[in-house]
Amino acid sequence: MDGLRVMEDGTYLDGTFGRGGHARGVLQRLGTGGRLLLMDKDPEAIAVAEHGFGADPRVSIHRGSFTDLAHWDAVRDGLDGVLFDLGVSSPQLDVAERGFSFGKDGPLDMRMDPDAGESAAQWLARAGEAEIADVLWTFGEERMSRRIARAIVARRAEQPLTRTAQLAELIASVMPRPKAGRHEIHPATRSFQAIRIHVNRELADLEAGLDAAHAALRPGGRLAVISFHSLEDRIVKRFIARHAKAPAGNRRLPETDAFEPTLRAIGAARKGDAAEIAANPRARSAVLRVAEKLGAPGLGTRDPGLEEQRREGQQRQQGRIGVCSSRVASLFRVPSPASRVPPTTERRP
């Protein structure tokens, strides 16, 4: 909530309602003139939202992916804050019938929106061995991706894979035995993550959702994203950097227009403290990144961060007063742009 910097009369979007934990926190800080927009593509989450929040006149509810937030009429006047809590929710993991968990036997589904797209079972029944291996490696960073893909293709020739327990046991049967005394995650962890990300197009949707949120934010508005694995966090980190830092220059290329930042990173990435992790063990891998929209506010818009920026500018200006003339020229030297973090090159084993 501190990252969003909720104002009493602001308009905020929770693009991943889940079961409403973040929504309750925002509502507690909103006044009668504030608005809270709730989105989720899971019909069960929307049912919870309607039951718990539908009677509040400050709340609007819409079923759909945050990739389509720009098409919701309630968003068109702009937003003062956007929150994405990525990945699968605890209720989705806990309900065996949703097919997300390798620890609970259920239908091999894994869709966050059960009315859209193909299930994990349907995809595994038709995908080629190479495609399965690529998905396991790309989205799960699974070192045994080819071995697991071969086992899946061989098993489905004998009988279809339709249950989570079937798939988990098959993966475990082809994985190397863990070393004695060494704690290892369940052998199916990375494969289940990869299949879920692929079936739900999670990373592609994240990139589209970040662009949509960036466009909808008013100057001074905040974007807060909670990710749970490195693939998500890498996308969020690079998105913020791309809009906050000038790209590295290249003297061999023609000069381009001056870079105008449109985001400002608010602090470094944050992780849950001991108390949060003790209350919710799944929060141990959570990473929060916050950014603020820049730009001159238009007519009728507000920029709650503008005064802070002005104070910082005044302090910098005061530090320049009294510089002797021999150093004046140095004030006009343009520093080399900050280098962006180069993309990590991943190689398949």
Automatic annotation (TrEMBL):
The alphabetical list of record keywords is: Cytoplasm, Methyltransferase, rRNA processing, S-adenosyl-L-methionine, Transferase
Q: Where is this region: Disordered?
A: 296-322
Q: Where is the signal peptide?
A: none
The residues the record assigns to binding S-adenosyl-L-methionine are: 20-22, 40, 66, 85, 92
According to UniProt, the reaction catalysed is:
cytidine(1402) in 16S rRNA + S-adenosyl-L-methionine = N(4)-methylcytidine(1402) in 16S rRNA + S-adenosyl-L-homocysteine + H(+)
User: Any idea of its EC number?
Assistant: 2.1.1.199
Where are the compositionally biased (Basic and acidic residues) regions? 304-314
Q: Where is it chiefly localized?
A: cytoplasm
The record's annotation in InterPro entries points to: RsmH, SAM-dep_MeTrfase_MraW_recog, SAM-dependent_MTases_sf
Under the heading HAMAP family, the entry gives: 16SrRNA_methyltr_H
The entry's function note states: Specifically methylates the N4 position of cytidine in position 1402 (C1402) of 16S rRNA.
Listed name of the protein? Ribosomal RNA small subunit methyltransferase H
Q: Which organism does this record belong to?
A: Luteimonas lutimaris
Which lineage is the organism of this entry classified under, starting from the top rank?
Answer: Bacteria, Pseudomonadati, Pseudomonadota, Gammaproteobacteria, Lysobacterales
